[in-house]
């Protein structure tokens, strides 16, 4: 377990360094006047002029050489200081703390829904490969995985909010507001989880030890619980870890689409306003979230699979 944690810790350090450098370089490469965009974010486009942009540039020290500004950010990062937002003036870490809670709620709901939808259908399909359920889930999984998340979100809004009126189309604050964005994220995750579970279950159900469990007179349910569930869980969990990129990417798109006040929504607004500390902070948190979630999956697989503990 210690090598796993050491590897993930080293990965987190590299992610922090790469995210900081890349976001800084990309924001510097954006066209347009950074001081003017920041002033527009503060005062509105109708009240911005050259004098306001010059005042913002002098106040924030935007005239510093690029290498000096990047070095200052990295030094602040070593001291766990992400700086202040160039638009609001508030500490970046305080804004992220507030937004991360909303994103965490949405991510947990999405993963929970995907686990309720995908693996159970995949396990049933894997027990009868080639059956109607297997063919139906194959078609649904292919369609859902091929569609971009914003298309899935718009289709769900048109059906469940506009046509049927069951759920609110956007906003936050209640469980009903959470359901549509969470379902938008969950369908893509469930599609992959369903097919991975199906293939894993087919392999386990065709194995000699599974057949031996049946010859002992165990019921199908007890054979599955004793010899199937744990062996199926390891590949499903490992593959779900790879799909976390889909979740993190989706947070940015879905939060913007549903006006969800999370970290992805904040990232889009920070890019529009050229708020470099906020861009670096949100990108850093998203990258570290990916490393952390993968570390948790590694530990879970380590716990489930005794072969990993002996390796």
Largest sheet: none
CATH architecture of the largest domain: Orthogonal Bundle
Domain count, please report it.
Answer: 2
How many H/I helical runs?
Answer: 14
- Count of extended strands: 0
User: Helix-strand pattern, N to C?
Assistant: HHHHHHHHHHHHHH
Folded structure, characterized:
This protein is mainly α and about 300 residues long. It folds into 2 domains: about 1-90, no CATH class; about 105-310, MetI-like fold. It has 14 helices and no strands. It has helices spanning about 1-30, 35-45, 50-60, 65-80, 90-125, 130-145, 150-165, 175-205, 210-215, 220-240, 245-255, 265-275, 275-305, 305-310. α8 packs across α10, α9 packs antiparallel against α10 and α12 packs antiparallel against α13 (about 275-305). The radius of gyration is 24 Å and the shape is elongated.
């Amino acid at each position: 377990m210690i090598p796993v944690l050491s590897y993930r810790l080293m990965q987190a350090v590299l992610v922090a360094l790469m995210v900081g450098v890349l976001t800084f370089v990309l924001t510097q490469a954006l066209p347009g006047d950074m001081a003017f965009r920041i002033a527009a974010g503060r005062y509105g486009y109708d009240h911005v002029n050259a004098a306001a942009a010059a005042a913002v540039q002098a106040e924030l020290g935007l005239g510093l050489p690029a290498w000096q500004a990047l070095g200052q950010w990295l030094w602040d990062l070593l001291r766990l200081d992400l700086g202040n937002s160039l638009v609001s003036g508030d500490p970046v870490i305080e804004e992220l703390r507030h937004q991360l809670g909303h994103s965490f709620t949405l991510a947990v709901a999405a993963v929970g829904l995907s686990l309720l939808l995908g693996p159970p259908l995949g396990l049933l399909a894997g027990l009868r490969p080639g059956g109607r359920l297997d063919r139906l889930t194959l078609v649904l999984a292919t369609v859902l995985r091929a569609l971009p998340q914003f298309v899935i979100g718009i289709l769900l809004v048109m059906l469940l909010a506009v046509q049927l009126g069951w759920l609110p189309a956007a906003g936050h604050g209640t469980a009903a507001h959470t359901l549509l964005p969470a379902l938008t994220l969950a369908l893509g995750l469930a599609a992959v989880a369903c097919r991975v579970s199906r293939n894993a279950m087919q392999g386990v159900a065709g194995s000699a030890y599974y057949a031996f469990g049946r010859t002992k007179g165990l019921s199908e349910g007890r054979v599955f619980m004793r010899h199937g569930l744990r062996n199926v869980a390891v590949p499903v969990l490992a593959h779900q870890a790879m799909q976390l990129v889909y979740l993190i990417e989706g947070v940015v798109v879905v939060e913007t689409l549903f006006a969800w006040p999370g970290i992805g929504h904040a990232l889009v607004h920070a890019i529009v306003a050229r708020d470099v500390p906020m861009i670096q902070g949100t990108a850093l948190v998203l990258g570290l979230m990916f490393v952390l979630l993968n570390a948790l999956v590694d530990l879970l697989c380590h716990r489930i699979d005794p072969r990993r503990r002996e390796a």
